[in-house]
Amino acid sequence: MVVQDSVDAPGVPLEPFLHQVGGHLSVMRYDEHTVCKPLISREQRFYESLPLAMKRFTPQYKGIITVHLRKDSHGRLSLVANPLTENRGPFTVSTESAAVAIWQTLQQTAGGGALPLAQWQHPQRAHSLKESPAMALLRSELHLKAQVPSLVEDANGNLMEKGSFNPWGLHCHQAHLSRLCAEYSENKRHRFLLLENVVSQYKHPCILDLKMGTRQHGDDASEEKKARHMRKCAQSTSARLGMRICGMQVYQTDKKHFLCKDKYYGRKLSVEGFRQELYQFLHDGTRFRTELLEPIQHQLQALLSVIRSQSSYRFYSSSLLIIYDGQETPQMPHGSNAIKVDVRMIDFAHTTYKGSWNEHTTYDGPDPGYIFGLENLIQILQGIHEGQ
Fold this sequence. Notes:
The protein is α+β, with helices and mostly antiparallel strands. The protein is 30% helix and 22% strand. Strands 1-6-5-9-4-3-2 form a 7-stranded antiparallel β-sheet. It has a 5-stranded antiparallel β-sheet with strand order 12-11-10-14-15. Helix 4 packs antiparallel against helix 5 and helix 10 (293-308) runs antiparallel to helix 11 (368-387). The chain is globular. GO terms for molecular function: ATP binding; inositol hexakisphosphate 6-kinase activity.
C-alpha cells in the first residue's frame, strides 16, 4: 500500500466520528464507509498478518494515510488528511454534516481553538504540577466537561438534539488535538490506519464496547502501568467475568436519542450490574429486543470457535463490539424481520502472537482470558434469553 505523504497534496478535513463509544485514541470519519485512527505499529502488523478465520470478526484493513493539524482563519482546529489515490475517486467531506456542526459549536463555545485543559482533565488526576500540560493530559483519565447547547444547528439550519450523538468521540478527539498542539508543529505529518466503518450500514447504531480478558496490560508495559491495569481488572468485572463495559450507546425509540455510558461507569459495575446493563443495551426504551438474542449468541459462538483455534495469540486490551440497529427493520412478507447484528474485535495495539515482530514472549495455545470472557458473555445472554 502506497502512503501518500506529499506536503503539496490537497488536504481533506477529517470529521470526528460520533459513534465512538470507548477507547482513548481519537477515531475519525474518513468517508461514509471508512474511519481512521492514529497508527500504532503493532496494530498495523496485526492487520497485515490477520488469520483468514478472524477477518469476518475484525474491521477490514484499508491501508495507511498521512494526517496533519490545521488551524483555519477562525482559529478552529482540524485534522487534515492527504487522501490515498489508489483505486479512489475524488474525495469530499460534507461541511453540512452533524459531526462538523457539533465540533465547530464546541470550539466556538470554548472561544476558538482547543478547549482549555482544565475543562477536559479528570479532577482526581489534575494534581501533577511538574508535568507539562501535554503530559498531564496524556496521563489523565479525561471526562468531557465542555457544555454543548441542548440544540445544535447544522449548516442547513436543522436542529439536532444534544442527546442524538455520543460525546465520547469528541472527548477523545479534543484530547488528541490538545496533545498534537502542545507537542508538534502544524506541518508535522502523522500516520493513521484506515479501517472499515463497521456501523456505516446502521441508521441508529446501538454499540456495546467490551474490554475483553482478565489481563489488560501488554508484555511491554512498565511496572507502573502493569500495576495500574492489574488494579483496574481486580476492582472491576474483568477479574470475575473476563470482560467489562468500556462504552455503550443504545437508541431510545421513545425519546429519539442515544442513552450513553462510558468506561468510568463500566468500571464500577458489579457482576449483577453488568448483567443489568447488558439487558439495558438490548432495551429500546419501549421494549426488550428479544429477537436480537439468538443472532448475537450465534455470532459469539462462532467467534469463540475462531479464538479457540488461534494458538499463541493474546488479545491484551482489545475490545469486542456488539452492534445492532436501533431502528427496527421492516417486517418481511413472510412475517419475520431481517435482523442484522455484528460482532467485531477492535484495538490490537497490545496483541501478541508467535512470529510477531521483535517479540520476546511467545504463548502456547489460545487466549484463556478472552475465552473466559466470551464464555461468560454467552452464558449471561443465555440466562437473559431464558428469563424472557
